């Protein structure tokens, strides 16, 4: 079985040949742009490894050990306040990507990195992430290593940044403390934010083994593994014990014995296997394969149409030219009809989504009411600030998982209908025009060359699931800010006072109406965000279909005009061009076969 890198390289070479040796024969074909985009995506493909864990777990020291130098700031307090993405570069540099779109390029050193740690004067809300270019061996082969703020950091912005970055990971390295039990908050984070995205891409690392007695090492790692497995419902886990400090010292001093003892080499080997065999990598292979095959199929259809056009007479070509030109003159009317159809589809989709969200809101309200009424603990403040927001976030995540596929399917169905409608419009109008002018002595086989298919217009096969992926990302952005702790309740001081007095019933009575108001705000914000997603996606689909349709027509016009010109010059090149086209079709068939044989 070939590796992803080998399959990717083979596909890159095939795409380059498709662009340079085949698509050059199809004037203005949109498949050239699709192929160039696919080639660029392949060439810029990175493996993203995200380092996660609660604060004081030694994440930055661990990352430094992988890099082989003491680069990232470390401290006993929460230090990392931004996303720090390390990638290979011959030249050392750092670039600060700000939320306003500006980029500040700086010299890479500890002095500049220390400006962006927790507790300094900079505002983390102004930073998207920091990119660090460094020639470290671990970053070769397009690996990006990401250091993150602690997942239990009390700074809400830093936590939010970390949560939003997780879906991009090809592999996750989750650091634990070998000297303490697996915490409830760690278990809940793993369940809520990692398991739903695939346990097969997670490596658990128990740090600080240098603080454990040597004779107890094996028992400690085994005990953590059992506790972790039990905490995760019996799921098998990959757990490695390490000393990040020893690993860093070993890398800096070139101490191979200490490096072996530190446990870092085992982690690096596991990283390599996980990246090459994880579900994210398999998804990428499948997605690239699907995109390439769709481009090959569309290119083949266009070339077959060219062969038929080459076989047409000047009279047939002139009729085709007049028919297409007439349709172009009537484009405004067609676009108005298409816009009206999209508006109707938007209305229906919004109604379905809003109904589902309202139903979700009522269930959420009832569930939270039961939680409040059943609460019998001592720390009601912690219940309000932690447990309620966590329950809301889990509910939103569940709704998203259950309904995202339906939203994506509605959007894809709309795009398919638009593409089908546009192709039928073109083909019917073309046929009607030929009947109107009395075109009866023309070979219908050749006329078929002027037709277009829905697959040539729809970009859904090319995107291959990107609608769902982008929608999930936007929903994640919506869910973040609307589940902040409820300490902003107007009645919170009263609730706190009642708790001090030991009057739980009074605190509950005050909380429930406040909670209803908060739930209304949550549902309204969530519904508005989903409305924006649907409207933005329908606009993208309408614009994409229109643009592709226009390019297809212009491409046909160019082909017909060129062929008329050649035939009027009594050119004898038609046979040669048909031979070239037939060879191109054979090459496309070989490309398709190689995809299957490669196991992609």
Q: How many separate domains make up the residues?
A: 2
Largest sheet strand order: 4-3-5-2-6-1-7-8-9
* DSSP E strands, number: 9
Query: What is the helix/strand order?
Result: HHEHEEEHEEHEHEHEHHHHHHHHHHHHHH
The amount of helix comes to: 55-70%
Please, what is the average pLDDT? 77
Distance between the termini: 10 Å
Query: What form results from the Cα inertia axes?
Result: globular
Assign the structural class, choosing from mainly alpha, mainly beta, alpha/beta, alpha+beta, or little secondary structure: alpha/beta
Beta-strand content estimate: 5-15%
Rg, please? 30 Å
Unreliable stretches (pLDDT < 50, length at least 5) are 153-158, 434-448, 460-492
Largest sheet: 9 strands, mixed
Describe the structure.
The protein has 600 residues and is an alpha/beta fold. Strands 4-3-5-2-6-1-7-8-9 form a 9-stranded mixed sheet, with helices on both faces. Strand 3 (93-98) and strand 4 (103-106) form a beta hairpin. Helix 18 runs antiparallel to helix 20 and helix 19 (492-500) packs antiparallel against helix 20 (504-568). It has helices at 4-22, 30-43, 59-67, 110-113, 156-165, 184-193, 217-231, 244-253, 256-262, 264-277, 279-310, 314-329, 331-374, 380-436, 444-447, 454-457, 460-463, 466-479, 492-500, 504-568, 574-597, and strands at 47-52, 84-88, 93-98, 103-106, 127-134, 143-147, 171-177, 202-207, 239-241. Helices cover 64% and strands 8% of the residues. The longest helix is centred in the last third of the chain and has 65 residues, at 504-568. It starts with a helix and ends with a helix. The chain has 2 domains: 47-277, P-loop containing nucleotide triphosphate hydrolases (Rossmann fold, 3-Layer(aba) Sandwich); 311-568. It has 21 helices and 9 strands.
